[in-house]
Amino acid sequence: MEKLNWQSENKIKNIKTAIEKNEDLKEIIKKYWGSKNKKDLWLDKFKDNFNADELIYLDYTETNSSNSVSYTETQETNKITQLDNKETALSAEVEFFKNTENLKALVEIVKKYRNQQENNIQILGNGEISIPDEVKNLELNGNIAVKSNLELYDKIKELAYKNHCGIGQFVTFILWDFLKRNL
Asked: In terms of domains, do 24 and 53 share one?
């Protein structure tokens, strides 16, 4: 084996790296040779720098040797195996949902998840809360006079200020959230 110039060494390293990363063969051919014919001609010259597995990955076949390296046969076998695996997985999934108890359980899980998402109020940071649009669109059409703890009221005013909304709207949000969670 003769000493390679730096371009050839670099190309070989890059191709080996692409093989290790399991890049698609078509992409490797497109990236380094441009066509399958150029790849075969180049590999005829530089095949000694690759091991048998790498040559199989590159779908290289030696024309003058009786021992040919073929990638397509293993690829076809892998495709058949993958199809079989998909069919068995799909049939198992279908069988799972044929059972009415499993289907009812799934529906119940989805309902619980949706309810949690509807009631999910996000606390964004120090005192900031994402107030749902549903609450922002509620009409403030009444006055209530309620005795309450002034410390709590001051905290509510502070939170309303941090969330850029009025005290009435924030109190409405608190009442709405309480009713939504408990009714």
From this structure: yes
